[in-house]
Every structure is written in structure tokens, then in C-alpha cells.
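in:
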């Protein structure tokens, strides 16, 4: 079996917009990948965590710094054939006072950690969906502000250049999916499916290519 590690935040975990619940496995984009790839010899390793950042420590929740956790996960799941890396949304929070370029530097550190384990690991770098307008309102997520939304809009171009630098496959999630109107932050059922379809096409074109078979309904 080929092993694909999906390393991300709440949109990899599968948080249901506007709740503290999690979508069932067959709804999460990771679960959809598993359904279509397992019989073809691929296993999906889900490593999504709500609040996870690239390199920033959350003062209120332990274990959210992705760079502190990734090396351990790479070792515990070894050997890994591909890492699907989708982080950056939580880095946009007001408390981190960051920019697309600083978040990009965090992504570069994660890529370097992957390559330090094995240069042969394929990497699919995904820039996250955009934060929705008014995400900072009390009924949504006041950990963000208007600047956060603008920072999220700058991630696509920064990540694309990083993918070129490290010769990674690249996908902009904001080109294929969007945040739910319920919370302006998380994927709903429909958009998990849209993202899964786009990721499958990327895998089809990668060095880990497989018999694509029937398209997802």
C-alpha cells in the first residue's frame, strides 16, 4: 500500500460549520479520497487538528504548532509516499500579527521537515480556502479581523511560488471550494466533495498516479 499523509487543520479534520461536531468519514474530503483510492492500493492517513498553525504557538491551546508535531507524525507513520499539506488559515488570526509571506515561511519549514525525512516523499501543497467576509463577527469567529481576510487572500500566490521552489505539486483550494455561509471559515458537505475531486485530479497527474477509473458522482 502507498501511504498518503493529510496534514492540516479543522478543514482536514472535517469540522461541521457552526458547530463543534465532525463530519462522518464518508463526507470528509480525506474520507472521499480513501473511498476512491483504497482499492487501488492507497491508504489515507488523516492528521487534521482544529486550530493547527504552521509554526505559531497558540497560547490557549496546546499542540497547535504544526512544525512541532510534523516530524513525530512523519516518523510514526513511516514510510510515507506523499504528504498533502493544507495549513495557513489559523495563522491568519489577529493574535499572530502575520502576513502571507510569514505564513509562507512557516510552510517552507514544514516542507523542509518532510524532505529531511525522505527526499522522495511527494508533496501536494494546498493553499487554503479564503476566509469569508465578516468572519470576525461575534456570531462567527472573533479571533479573526478584516486584516485576516486580506491575509488569507494573499496565500495562494505565496504558496504557488513556494511549490515551484521546492518542486511540489500545487492546488489552490480557493479555486475549487469556499467557506460555508454558516461560519465563513469551514467547508460544508458540498465543498468537501469539490475539494476531494480536485485533489484526486492532482494525484492522478502526480508521480503517484493511479487508474483514475470512474469520476466521483
Amino acid at each position: 500500500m502507498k501511504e498518503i499523509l493529510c496534514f492540516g487543520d479543522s478543514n482536514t479534520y472535517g469540522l461541521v460549520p457552526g458547530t463543534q461536531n465532525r463530519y462522518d468519514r464518508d463526507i470528509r474530503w480525506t474520507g472521499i479520497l480513501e473511498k476512491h483510492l483504497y482499492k487501488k492500493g492507497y491508504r489515507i492517513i488523516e492528521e487534521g487538528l482544529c486550530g493547527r498553525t504552521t509554526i505559531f504557538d497558540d497560547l490557549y491551546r496546546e499542540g497547535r504548532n504544526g512544525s512541532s508535531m510534523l516530524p513525530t507524525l512523519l516518523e510514526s507513520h513511516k514510510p510515507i509516499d506523499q504528504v498533502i499539506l493544507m495549513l495557513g488559515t489559523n495563522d491568519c488570526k489577529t493574535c499572530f500579527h502575520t502576513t502571507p509571506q510569514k505564513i509562507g515561511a512557516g510552510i517552507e519549514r514544514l516542507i523542509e521537515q518532510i524532505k529531511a525525512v525522505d527526499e522522495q516523499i511527494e508533496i501536494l501543497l494546498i493553499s487554503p480556502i479564503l476566509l469569508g467576509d465578516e468572519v470576525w463577527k461575534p456570531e462567527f469567529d472573533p479571533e479573526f479581523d478584516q486584516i485576516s481576510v486580506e491575509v488569507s487572500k494573499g496565500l495562494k500566490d505565496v504558496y504557488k511560488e513556494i511549490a515551484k521552489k521546492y518542486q511540489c505539486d500545487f492546488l489552490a483550494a480557493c479555486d475549487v471550494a469556499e467557506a460555508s455561509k454558516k461560519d465563513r471559515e469551514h467547508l460544508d458537505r458540498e465543498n468537501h466533495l469539490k475539494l476531494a475531486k480536485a485533489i484526486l485530479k492532482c494525484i492522478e497527474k502526480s508521480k503517484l498516479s493511479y487508474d483514475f477509473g470512474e469520476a466521483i458522482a
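note: The chain has a mean pLDDT of 95.
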